[in-house]
């Protein structure tokens, strides 16, 4: 039953990811992106990572999508007309085939080893995922965390500059 549910969520994720690219309206693309993020959160729950699922919903499906919709409204994007050349279709199909081959390779390679399950069990046994993520974030990854905060500040300043431009 769990495998059937996984395939159903995977199908919805792939279809909504396809709609992100194919929708002509940017708002419809953003709504499809929300569905893709929700499917990813469901995958996190299936992997017994509820903290990551909650962060996925709060940060990506909440804050990032609101930011994307505000940018769409600020820039007044209507329906976009896209010119697709035959070269981009060939490159896209080639990239899709390479990703499929890589995914099949790693699925076959991962089935033979069971090392991933023991690592997750060790983390859960030593206090849970939240404590391990918090400790790693504020000790080992403090510099990237601070650099990210500076980049977010620059993005906010850029959004204000775009919003205040003269028409």
From TrEMBL:
Transmembrane segments: 6-23, 30-51, 57-77, 89-107, 141-163
InterPro entries reported for this sequence: NADH_UbQ/plastoQ_OxRdtase_su6 (IPR001457), Nuo/plastoQ_OxRdtase_6_NuoJ (IPR042106)
Domain of life: Bacteria
Compartment annotation: Cell membrane
Membrane topology: Multi-pass membrane protein
Matching Gene3D superfamilies: NADH-ubiquinone/plastoquinone oxidoreductase chain 6, subunit NuoJ
Catalysed reaction equations from the record: a quinone + NADH + 5 H(+)(in) = a quinol + NAD(+) + 4 H(+)(out)
EC number in record: 7.1.1.-
Keyword annotations: Cell membrane, Membrane, NAD, Quinone, Transmembrane, Transmembrane helix
Function comment: NDH-1 shuttles electrons from NADH, via FMN and iron-sulfur (Fe-S) centers, to quinones in the respiratory chain. Couples the redox reaction to proton translocation (for every two electrons transferred, four hydrogen ions are translocated across the cytoplasmic membrane), and thus conserves the redox energy in a proton gradient.
Similarity section: Belongs to the complex I subunit 6 family.
Name of the protein: NADH-quinone oxidoreductase subunit J
Gene: nuoJ-1
């Amino acid at each position: 039953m769990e495998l059937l549910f996984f395939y159903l969520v995977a199908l919805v994720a792939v279809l909504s990811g396809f709609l992100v690219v194919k929708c002509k309206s940017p708002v419809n693309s953003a709504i499809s992106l929300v569905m893709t993020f929700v499917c990813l959160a469901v995958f996190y729950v299936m992997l017994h990572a509820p903290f990551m699922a909650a962060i996925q919903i709060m940060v990506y499906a909440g804050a990032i999508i609101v930011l994307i919709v505000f940018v769409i409204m600020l820039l007044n994007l209507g329906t976009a007309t896209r010119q697709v050349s035959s070269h981009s279709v060939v490159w896209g199909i080639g990239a899709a085939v390479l990703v499929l081959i890589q995914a099949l390779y790693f699925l076959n390679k991962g089935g033979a080893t069971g090392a991933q399950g023991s690592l997750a069990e060790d983390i859960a046994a030593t206090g849970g995922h939240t404590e391990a993520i918090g400790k790693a974030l504020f000790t080992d990854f403090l510099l990237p965390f601070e650099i990210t905060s500076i980049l977010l500040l620059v993005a906010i300043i850029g959004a204000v500059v775009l919003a205040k431009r003269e028409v």
